[in-house]
Amino acid sequence: MGSDFKSIPLIDISPLVEKIDDPNMANDKDLLQVVRMLDDACREAGFFYVKGHGIAESLMKEVRDVTQKFFQLPYEEKLKIKMTPQSGYRGYQRVGENVTKGKPDMHEAIDIMRGIALALGGPVDAFEGKTAGDPFWVCRLIGYPVSTDIPEEQRTDTGCGAHTDYGLLTLVNQDDDICALEVRNKSGEWIYAKPLPGTFVCNIGDMLKVWSNGIYQPTLHRVVNNSPRYRVSVAFFYESNFDAAVEPVEFCRERTGGFAKYEKVVYGEHLVQKVLTNFVM
């Protein structure tokens, strides 16, 4: 939460996507402009939209349509894949089980993370290899019912309470015509991340704060569905390896006084603690 931003910036990442495997990418003028925009967005808002990602808008819509169809299934059908600790906290989660205060693919997340590495002044692969280990990802199909469809004792206008995300980077394919995702600026105002067709809305997470030694800070956000229609989103969470020891990287320490502002944390331990406090089983 770096400023009193009033809107979420939009970034065309096509130069980054096109040059991602070019060994001379760091010298490309158009790509460096994308890097500067990513740096500004991560510092100022912690959120940004991306276009030019190479995923067809028709595919993004198809994924949302399939998600809608799943949530329209009878409750008993959805319970067949109920989320449990034994399933690794994967599966269907009914309303009230999550307690918080187009389908993007891993390639797009890696592209953006490489851009963020350059924005921080590091090598393009700074958050790959032994630093992050083999990353893993979580793709969640999320449904937000109309409030009047929820039992009165569970009813609230907040579909997902204010929180920051656990990992590195989140990409969200949200409904084109329902405003519900809100991001809090430095003054405490809630700013709508209004849907922009054909884009993903992205935000940085807790682990990037640690790796960047506080240069980038995750931003509180929430979902408030006041629409008379059921809302869906498809969220892709890009995470470091479960066993990765996350600590401020050297090139970020050098830019922030030469010392680490955050202690080393094993990502899996951080994730498990968050999951245990965020789910009611």
From TrEMBL:
* Top-level taxon: Eukaryota
Q: Cross-referenced InterPro entries, in alphabetical order?
A: DIOX_N, IPNS-like_FE2OG_OXY, IPNS-like_sf, Iron_ascorbate_oxido_reductase, Oxoglu/Fe-dep_dioxygenase_dom
Q: What SUPFAM superfamilies does its record include?
A: Clavaminate synthase-like (SSF51197)
Tell me which residues make up the Fe2OG dioxygenase domain: 135-240
**Single GO molecular function:** metal ion binding
What range does the record give for the signal peptide?
Answer: none
Pfam family name, one: DIOX_N
Gene3D superfamilies noted in UniProt: B-lactam Antibiotic, Isopenicillin N Synthase, Chain (2.60.120.330)
Q: Which UniProt keywords apply?
A: Iron, Metal-binding, Oxidoreductase
Its cofactor is: L-ascorbate
**Similarity section:** Belongs to the iron/ascorbate-dependent oxidoreductase family.
Name the UniProt record assigns to this protein = Fe2OG dioxygenase domain-containing protein
